[in-house]
Structures are given as structure tokens and as C-alpha cells.
Amino acid sequence: MMIEWKKSYPGVWNGTVGTPELTLTGVSGKRPSDRLNQLPETACPEHKIQFDTMGKYTVLRMELDHEERVFGGGLLFKQVITENQVYHLRVDHYAGVDSGRTHAPVPFVVTSNGIGIFCNTPEQVDLYIRTAHRKEDKAKICEHDRAGDKDWSCYNAPYYIEIAVASPNVEFILFSGENLKDCVARFNLYCGGGFIPPKWGLGLWHRTNMTMDENDVQSVVEEYKKHHFPLSVIGLEPGWQSGSYPCTYDWSARFPNAERMIRNFLKDGVRVNLWENPCISEKSSVYEKLYPYSGSHLQWCGIVPDYNIPEVRNILKEHHRKSHFSIGVSGYKLDESDGYDKWLCPDHAEFPSGINGFVFRNLCGLLFQRITFEIYRENNQRTYGLTRSTNGGSVGFPYIIYNDRYDFKEFVTGLCSCGFTGTLWCPEVRGAQTAQEWVRRFQLLAISPMLLLNAWANDATPWMFPEVENTIREIVQLRESLQPYFYTAFAKYHFEGIPPYRSLFMDYGMFLAENRQHSGDLDDTANPYQEVQSSDIKDQFMFGDCLMAAPLEPGENSRKVIFPPGKWFDFHTGKQIVENGGVIELTCDDLSPMPLFAPDGAVIPVKENGALHVRKFGNLPGKFMLYDDDGETFDYESGKYSWKEIEA
Amino acid sequence: MMIEWKKSYPGVWNGTVGTPELTLTGVSGKRPSDRLNQLPETACPEHKIQFDTMGKYTVLRMELDHEERVFGGGLLFKQVITENQVYHLRVDHYAGVDSGRTHAPVPFVVTSNGIGIFCNTPEQVDLYIRTAHRKEDKAKICEHDRAGDKDWSCYNAPYYIEIAVASPNVEFILFSGENLKDCVARFNLYCGGGFIPPKWGLGLWHRTNMTMDENDVQSVVEEYKKHHFPLSVIGLEPGWQSGSYPCTYDWSARFPNAERMIRNFLKDGVRVNLWENPCISEKSSVYEKLYPYSGSHLQWCGIVPDYNIPEVRNILKEHHRKSHFSIGVSGYKLDESDGYDKWLCPDHAEFPSGINGFVFRNLCGLLFQRITFEIYRENNQRTYGLTRSTNGGSVGFPYIIYNDRYDFKEFVTGLCSCGFTGTLWCPEVRGAQTAQEWVRRFQLLAISPMLLLNAWANDATPWMFPEVENTIREIVQLRESLQPYFYTAFAKYHFEGIPPYRSLFMDYGMFLAENRQHSGDLDDTANPYQEVQSSDIKDQFMFGDCLMAAPLEPGENSRKVIFPPGKWFDFHTGKQIVENGGVIELTCDDLSPMPLFAPDGAVIPVKENGALHVRKFGNLPGKFMLYDDDGETFDYESGKYSWKEIEA
Question: What is the ipTM of this complex?
Fold first, then answer.
């Protein structure tokens, strides 16, 4: 099958099979950023790509170079390089295995050669990465005998990626960047560019126990003042509503003076964020209106309105505007759009707009964000919140993905992988076994997209381990001192498409010498197919313009840190760590600061006691372009912002 | 949609939607057992069942009673009761989560009320167990507020099971038994009845390192003699072939005198079993013949013949007969039909018979068993082997499922769950960190469907921990002494459909008082939805007529044992343990024997020094019907067998 690739922007081509009705970008309601037109032209790699119709599937196939690596394919928690994997993408709670079932199964892959493929569809997408050989490839493959030939390997060139979409109607979008990072940036810009959070969003968040009433919540805010922790947002969990699981979206009698409470909090600079999920109770004031537009199946005993219908979105926007926005609510946490599978309606559920449960779930988080975001957008006020699922096209929605797991390694790998698909991932703190664990978790939070203490099911506070209260306060201060740095990172996300959180591979390419053997070490349980263990980097990442984090795990007092080529410096002490990249073993104390490193020439603005200082690392020339705007409206879209060049 | 249920046997009704071409039972080539006609009639529960066509799905829905529990849905490793789960069934390597991706995703579920539903199709089947509420159920559901109402629960009556098949053409088969066990038995008999292994199959198996040549293998057999371990089967791993991964199915030069070796082994009572996988090398003598019948994609660089084509099966049978069977090979280990997903061809692969990769994979293990089994069947000789995937309809194929994992808990839970879907699961030993672990693993093996030491990737031997060599020998002797007991269990599998390995629930019903609360304990990470932890029993099981095993885990010196109502006795000492069921905490030494228990009235034949002894437990009257036949042919099918009543 031949399809025509039509150039839409420099380095971006659209190829359509059949007549797709729903696309992810269409559903998001976002338009590509004009910035795309200013980017240099690149060559179209269309000659590498072939299409086939195979039964119910539309199949795209692309040959990869021998050392070409693939990234993306959704939010991953166990690895960054998606070598030789199969992902059956679908929105689901991540259950401990990177199988394609994840909170953000974005059907976008990007290679180390800077080629990106986006399947702009909510239908089922399967990714076969460096694993699908066809019969016609046979002549190009050299067979070896596993038992007797040391050249045997479980993986063999040539390598391909095959993408199968279970639909005859698909839009594919092909991106070609000057490198991996540039390709990701073009993808982000095509989806509208990243969001810029309100400045208050980068402060300290606390979500309260779901059973709390107005007085309880006010006490929590008071406690923060008493302990001199600068609380920025208080999040209310299900109990703010008159009913939840399923939800009413109406205020509970537990909050008789919600408006007054919110206004008082605002005087202290504290915003209120509300928890919601998509399942609506018969007790809700919007139940009757939404009933005719809801799907065949219930979730949490509530109806599920079909967000794919504009009238549904309008009803919900109207209600949220009147009941929450108008009294000062700052935003939402959108829960349970992912499922754990069993909590959501089945794939075969029918929705009034004609989509089924599978497609609805792929769109639910995306549209939930759109609905709530648009209320704020239409009132020229920024919002910041959380979502438990998303999909391609959501890069401009100011929502961070979170989940119920609490594995530190996974939290870090999520931060490494999220940037490949226009998503941001949010570790959170909920509790700890030891003071040291509490510190380590806060350290990670302090450099995450959201600094969130989530006490929805307990009564955790930043000072719950008194012996480290000061340490935690210093960590929050570090976050504040880096606020201009973070804010600029988000501006680059918006204007240039550069993700604020990035894998080292995105900034430095495949700089590790691969030195791949023919086959890896045999272990009958851990490695029965003698897979070569690739040089993945999944426990350290870049954030902002140039800082590299190598988080310390709870319980560990040493770790390996990989440095890309060049000189690298300790951010805290300024001391040079390596002369020209390489690997070091870092040892540290229980309360050592989060290991942060800056490359030669790095210039980093730091706010201290209200004044802006500049820190410069190494001897290479360097500068920092500091972004600023009003911090809370969309006026930056009409040019009201500044970029200030900062030198040491 | 109305469909007509047609009674085919007592307690068995067939209901067809559309015109299904392929069915699992059709593919297996087996016919229902005549025995079914002798079973009592039961009432058809058709009034509980409704059908809908929802988009591409055919959906069956059945209401469950409040306390009705569901079992089956394929081989599970983490739980036995499948309460409130969603399984997207597909053949895959089990990856640590019971999600429907498993070695045996048999689309059969059975309830504690004795109702069974079998989707006799290789197409995609999704099971929604006690989780799919519809809008029309709303009036029957009582809503509660999670934050303020202690009656809130994440699960709410009424309960349903919905089964969605992604095809307009499906045969459903409805079973109604007098109880859970009787329903499972009818399902097994409908699929042809269980297999009876050859007597030698119940002995000690050793699989050799894949790099070994003829001399190495002969040395292994000699070592067994020297150490007085009664080896029954020696398994050759990939290296017996001239090429593997992909396979040739032809003898390697490493085995220049394979026939002589096999004949010599047979003189010592040692059988040879050969490893294979479905991917065929260009160096194979059957490559050219099979090439035109192979699928669009390669696996392990080899072609994949379409087993769904009779001519393919004939080519393979002819080759296996000539090259292996005729020189004395006793059977096969059929590997890699499950996948790990990434090792197999994609779902969209096309096969000459018109099926796609998804369906091929669902059938691959089933047909691989059929092909190899039929060679032996046609020569009136029994075989016994291993398969890494199977599906509904395979109950009569003498193959045990295994995998690469090595988690003791999972191994035990596999034995608890396998019997619900006509499958048998095989733990195996490969190695151990300590002598105690070695002992505990062998203890589990000694009461498993196959006593298999799998040294394919190492050089493990039963005597590798010299300090426990005698203990291991005693464990093997225990296995031998129970041989008449095991053999009879398999006869009941064949003649009556009773699985040799069973959950306690199958024999004793839902005997645990459930006492379910409205909601479970909240834990923000481990139990965020406050699920009630059901009284599952997943670490002890019944085997044979009446023995209950409560395996000791490596590293543990005590465990909880649950006893169904009535008196129970220690199998080894004869001592009474409980007066009327209940839970005890068992403590034990490192080398304590495997805890085995017999109920009041149990009569168990035990072979000691070649003579048959009888052990009787308790005072209740009891007897044992001992089965026997020639142990190696299919003459039992024409009546050449005996059932001897044994009393204490």
C-alpha cells in the first residue's frame, strides 16, 4: 500500500490511511505551534517506511539502523530505551510491568537518529520494536546455532519497528529532527507546545485526608504557618463532595462555607485544588442532565458521561465554573481515568458518540484535562493539576501524571522516560519508614514537576520526622531558590517544545560506548535468552536547561553516577567531579543533599533571600536566558513576557 | 439477542452465535467422553444468561449470586479465586501479574454454584468478573459516600460476569454440575477426559545442559546410577539438533550415534525426551517443504509453519516419526509457544490458513501438542512431555505447562489454580542457594505432575548438596511409594474428569466463613480502594483422591495450614492434627518432610520395597479404588484395565 506523506511543517509530514474520524490532536482541541514554521527543514525519511493492510490492522514498518535505538511508546517505569519490546498500548494503571498498559500509552516513538512516528489515533496501537522480522527478510539474516555457535544471539540484524493499528482509518505523523531532542521538540510543538504552570504551581502542595472537614483543613493550613513551611496549594480529596465514588461535584455539608474558606486561604497565598473522578452519582446536581449522554456501563456505580460529546463538555464546564472556579478554586486532580482496568467500564461498553469503552478510556484523561483546562483558559487564568491518565496531544495541558505506587526506582525512571512523549510524571511523598527515607523522597520531589505531599489517606506532614524537620525545610528552600530556573524550563517547553525533564540520551545522544557482545550471560531464570543488557540510564535525568540529578535511594549510601563527556561540577559545592565524563561511585551520608551536577559552562540563576544570584560552573563560556511573565495569565501568548540574558 | 441452548450431554448445552469456523475443541481433534452420557441431568441455568452484540464484540452476561465465587479464566499464579478481575486473555509468558496473559489463557470460568461457561474459540476473549455494572442495574445499586459513609465499598451487589468475544462467530458451551468439582469434571470430559501418563512418566526426570554432547549425556546417566537415583527420563535441550533457535529437528553431529545411545538408555529404563520450539531453520530437512505453509513473520529468525493446516501437521508428524519416534524417543518438550510476547510473531502476522498471529498464538501450543501426541497415539504408545502454552481442549494431551520463573509461591499457586481449566502445571528445580532450599523444592516436585530437575543451563544434580543427598533420595522414594496413588489419580482424570491437582475449594466448597466487611483496610499504596481481602487459599492444594499438601517454603520454618471441616491426620506419622477443621500454625525443621495430610476415612495405597501397603486414617469407613493397566499403551481405551477395591 502506498500512502502520500504531506509536509505540514518543516520536519513534519502527515500520512493518512482511510478516513480517520477521531484523532488525538483533534480531541485535544489544540493546534500546532507557529514556532514550527521557524525550524529548519529536514529530509523526509519516507523511503524507510512501508505500509500494509494485514487483516483488520493497518501496519507501518520502518527499518532501523544497526545501532539506532528507540524511545517513547508511552510512560515507562522500568526502562528508558525500549529495545526489543512489544507494547500493546492501552490506558491502564501501571501494574509493575512495562507492557504498554500505562497511564500515558502515547503512540509516539522516536529514534536516536531523530525520526519520530506518531499514530494520531485513539484506537488500539501495538508497537513491535526491533522485533518483527518478516519472511522476506530471511535472506538478510544470518542463522547461528544456539548450542554450538558463540555468534548466536537472541536478536539479529536487520532491525525494524512495526506499528499495527487495529483500524483501517489512521493518521500517521512523521517527524524528522536534527537529533533526538529536536525531534521530540517538533512533536511537542506539533501538539501545541508544552504548558507553562502558574508560578504558584511550583510551590509546596499538600493534599489532605479525604475524611477531613472545613475545620480540619483550616487546621492543616495553620500548622503549615506555624512550622514555617510555605504552603502554596492545599488539595481536597473526595470528601469535599456531597458524595464520591461516584462523585457529585457538589460541595459537601462538611464544607458549609467553602467560598469563605477559599477566599481566606487565598489571602495567605494558598490555593485550593479539588479531587474528582469521571463517575457521576445519582445525587449530583448534573446527573439528570448527563444521564442521556452516558455510556452503557457504570463505573464506581456512577454514570460515565461521554466526554467526546461537546454538549457533555459544556454541561461539565458550566457546573465547574459556577461551583468551583467562581469561588476561587485553582484547579483539579483528575483521578481514576486510568483504571487498574477492573475499575473502569469494559472495552465493549457503548457510548452515545459511537465510541466503545476501549476508545473512551484512551481519551478519558485527555478530555477530562481539556474540560477543566478550558474553564481556566477562557478566563485567562492559569491552572495546575494532576491527572492519572493522558494520551498523545496533551502536552499543552497543565496536568502531571501520578499513580498509587510508591517504588522509588520507578518514580525516578518515570521522570527519565516521560519527556519522550510529551508527558510529565509526578512522584509524590505519602509516608516513610525512616527519617532518611522521608528526606530522600522529599529531595526527589524538590526537583520534580510538582512538590506534592499526598496525605489523602493518612495525616503525614513535612515535619512528621522532627529530627529532620530542618532538613526538609532546606529541601523546600532549594526548590524555591530554583524557581526561576524551573519556570524558564517550562517556558522552553512551551515556546521551543523542549521537555523540562529529559533522559540523558536526549541531551547527549547515545554517548555510551555500547560494546555489544553477541549474546549476554545465560541465567536460567533471570536471563534465559541471554539478552545483552543494554546501557540504559534510568536512574538519573536532566531537568531544566542543564542540571543533572542522580537521586539517592532511601536506604542507600552510595550510587553509581554516569557523566556524559566533558567536565561536570557538583551543583552544591561547585567542585569539579570529572574531567571528561565517565562513571563515578558516589558515597554520601544519610542527610547529604540531592546529588545535582552542572556541566562546564553552565549558568544557573538561583533565588536567595529574594534576590537573584547567578552561579557559573567551569570555564567554558555560557549564559542563561531567563524567562519571566506575570506568572498567572495567558498574556504571554500575546507577547507579554521577557527573556533576559544572564551571565556570570 | 436470543440464542438457543442445545443440550448435547447431561449438564452440557451448546449455544452458537453466527457461524464459528474454528473452535478450540475442533482444533484439538478430541471428542467428548462417552462417560458424559452416564452423568445425572442438571437444570440449565440459561435464564441467568443474556447475550448482546456490542460493536465488534459478542457479549455474554450472567448474574451471580451474592456469595457466588468465580474460578478459572486460565492458569493463575497469584490467586485462586478470581474475584473482581478483568482478564484480557492471550497466550503469553506469565510476567508476574495475573492479567489474562498466561501460558494457558483457557476461556473457561466456573462458579462456586457449579455453573461453567466455555468460550470455544481461539479469538480474543475478555473476562469481566464481578465487575461490569450496566446502566440498567443502577436502580438495584445502593450508592454510598466514600468519605462519610462506612457502608461504602469498592464492590457492590448485584454481581455479574461479562464475557466479551471479539468476533461475531462464537460457540459458547454451558456446563451445570452438581457442584464446582462436578462442573469442572464435565468440562474435562467434554474436552475428551484427562490423559493417563505412561508409568515411567511419573519417575525422575533430568534435563541436561543444552551444550552437552552424546558422551556428556551418557556420563550424566552413569552418575545417576552411581548415586542410586532411579532416573526415568533424560531430556535433551536445544543442542541435540544440528541447529536451534531456529530449530532443524535434525540430529546434531554432537550426537553421532543417537539411536544407539537411546537404545542403551532404554535397557536401563531411561527414556529420552527432546526439546523443540516451533521456529524452523533454513538448515532443517523439512524447511523447504514447510516454507510455503509458513506465516508472514519469522520467529527466532526461522519460519513458523501454520499448524492449522493438516498438511503441515502431516509433514511434521512424518519427520518426527522417522527421525525420533522410530529410534526410541519417548516424547517432547514444546518450548516458546507462549512468547514473552516479544519473541513471537506479531498479532497482525498472516498465516496461509487465514488466521492471524493472535489466533495462531492462541492455538500454537495446543496444535504442537496434538501433532506430537498423535504420532504416539497412532502407534499405541503413550508419551509424556512439557509444553509452555496450551488452551482449552487440551485436557487429553499428556503435556505439563512450565515456565522460566522460579518463585516458590507462584509454583504452588499454579498447582492450586491449574485444575479449574483442564491444565496441569509443573514446578521444576534448577538450583538453590542453600541445601534447605534444595530440599524444599524437591519436596514440592515429589508431589507435582512431573518430578523434573531442569539443568538445561547449568550442571545441577540431585546430589549437588552432599549434606542432603540422602534426604533428596528419600523424597524421590516418597514419590515412588505414592506411584499407585498418583496413577489412579490420573485414571480418574481420564475416566471421570476429576483433576489430579485441585484447589481445596473444589473438594470442600466455600467452607471458609467469609464474614465480609463493607470495605477493607485503607492503605494508600497497598490497598487504596479498601478492597476486602477474600479468604483465598493459594498455598495448599489437594492431589489425588484425598491428600492435602501444604508445602514449606524455602527459608520458612513455620506456616499456617487451613483444614476443611472434619478430622485431619498427618500422612507421615498418622497423628491426628485437628478434630474438626480449622487453622493451625505448623512449625518444622529445615529437613522436615513435606507436610501432607489425609482426612478421616482416607485409604491410601503405598508401595514399599515393591509391595503394596495400605494406610488408613481415622475411624470413618473408607476405601480406595486402585486403578491399573499396562502402563504404556492405549489399550485401556478398549477396556484393558482394572479397578481394585482396597480396604485397610
Answer: 0.95
